[in-house]
Design brief:
Helix content: 40-55%
Structural class: alpha+beta
Number of helices: 4
CATH class: Mainly Alpha
Distance between the termini: 30 Å
Order of helices and strands: HEHHHEE
Radius of gyration: 12 Å
Number of strands: 3
Strand content: 15-25%
Strand order of the largest sheet: 1-3-2
CATH architecture: Orthogonal Bundle
Number of domains: 1
Shape: globular
């Protein structure tokens, strides 16, 4: 079975959300991510880290604390 990365899994989740989304909406999916990546005992911190990476890559936009926008 091919293992996906945190970034790939988080991008899939983000693509399933409205264009403007919140950190809370992503945290609601934390169990799915934790099951896919059992070696990480701090999934919320990892989510925030990957969101920063996606922002730096221009895939999402930071609007205000806890609010993001997917760049089309």
């Amino acid at each position: 079975m091919e293992k996906t990365t945190w970034k790939e899994d988080l991008e899939k989740i983000i693509n399933g959300l409205p264009q403007d989304f919140t950190l809370v909406q992503i945290y609601e999916k934390v169990l799915i991510l934790a099951e896919s990546h059992p070696g990480n005992s701090h999934p919320k911190a990892k989510i925030r880290q990957v969101l920063q990476q996606l922002r730096d890559q221009g895939k999402i936009r930071f609007l205000e604390p806890g609010k993001y926008q997917r760049v089309s």
